[in-house]
């Protein structure tokens, strides 16, 4: 079975879990949307930041919609495999997906044969969370601060291993940018998600990665990894002792990722409106807000959240990342 066939089989299986078979097309239409469970495609392995956010917002969205939402993890291609498969689903609201800065911002610069257009292939539902990027390393990495860390990378180069979740992922895109700014050339180690990458960082099998804050906070609190800097203008309340890259001496590396909900293009207007409303209710849920904030996520408010804001964000991210990443690739 080919990789594409396996992905389609995974998606088909996810869509069939708990599905309620309608007596007829007419009966389904009369019931209204949704009349059966919804599949939320996460284009990475379980345990990573995108998966974490999806599992936080899915239950309250399901409550608002009145139907279960099942998570379908379809990893590969830095998230582009799962997004590509989900984009081909019927635009009826029963398959939606979580994309992010990598799949819908950086991917066009890194995949010349990308099978979707981030700004045209989808109906945007809304931004779920902003997720600052943190430079983290194995807990026993021999450097006291970011200056020493960069110096070690510059000195020993390819002897250090840098993990990432696949070409085009947030950890890959921001990692390439960090390496270019820091003038470092480590050896990349590719995973099918930052969940597996983080496991190997904790065990010391790899040396470092640049990862979204929601994935690193629990491990930093447990002391199983160490952080050198957060790539934001101000420190995060979730990691108050971690300096910003500006404070640590690398002011040009300031970048935050984001995660958002999309659907295949041409959703019926009433279905689109219900999904937008469900995401709004999920992000206003006190439990969701508390969980995301504790993990260091930034919850979009008002005009930063909905379909129009997400469409504008995608367009601006493609324009921003394309020249930066192509320059980084050309410099390798």
UniProtKB/TrEMBL annotation:
The organism's place on the tree of life at top rank: Bacteria
Signal peptide per UniProt: 1-29
InterPro entries: BUG, Bug_dom1
Keywords from the named record: Signal
Coiled coil (residue ranges): none
Pfam family, one: TctC
Similarity-based family: Belongs to the UPF0065 (bug) family.
Protein's UniProt name: Tripartite tricarboxylate transporter substrate binding protein BugD
């Amino acid at each position: 079975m080919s990789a594409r066939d396996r992905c389609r089989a995974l998606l088909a299986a996810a869509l069939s879990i708990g599905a309620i078979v309608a007596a007829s097309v007419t009966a389904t239409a009369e019931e209204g949307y949704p009349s059966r469970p919804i599949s939320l495609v996460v284009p990475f392995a379980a345990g990573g930041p995108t998966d974490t956010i999806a599992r936080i917002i899915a239950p309250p969205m399901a409550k608002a919609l009145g139907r279960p939402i099942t998570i379908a993890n379809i990893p590969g291609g830095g998230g582009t495999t799962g997004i590509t498969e989900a984009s081909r689903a019927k635009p009826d609201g029963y398959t939606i997906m979580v994309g992010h800065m990598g799949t819908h911002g950086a991917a066009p610069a890194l995949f010349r044969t990308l099978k979707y257009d981030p700004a045209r292939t989808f109906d945007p539902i809304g931004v779920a969370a902003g997720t600052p990027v943190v430079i983290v390393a194995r807990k026993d990495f021999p450097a006291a601060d970011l200056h020493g860390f960069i110096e070690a990378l510059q000195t020993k180069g390819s002897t250090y291993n840098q993990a990432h979740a696949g070409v085009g992922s947030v950890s890959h895109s921001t990692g390439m940018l960090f390496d270019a700014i820091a003038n470092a050339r480590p050896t990349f180690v590719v995973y099918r998600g930052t969940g597996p990458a983080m496991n190997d960082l904790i065990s010391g099998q790899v040396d470092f990665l640049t990862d979204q804050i929601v994935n690193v906070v629990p491990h930093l609190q447990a002391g199983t990894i160490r952080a050198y800097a957060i790539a934001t203008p101000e420190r995060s309340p979730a990691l108050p002792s971690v300096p910003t890259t500006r404070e640590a001496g690398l002011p040009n590396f300031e970048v935050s990722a984001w995660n958002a909900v999309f659907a295949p293009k041409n959703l019926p207007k009433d279905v689109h409106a219900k999904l937008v409303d469900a995401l709004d209710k999920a992000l206003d849920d006190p439990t969701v807000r508390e969980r995301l904030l504790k993990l260091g996520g930034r919850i979009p408010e008002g005009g930063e959240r909905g379909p129009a804001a997400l469409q504008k964000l995608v367009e601006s991210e493609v324009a921003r990342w394309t020249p930066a990443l192509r320059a980084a690739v050309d410099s390798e």
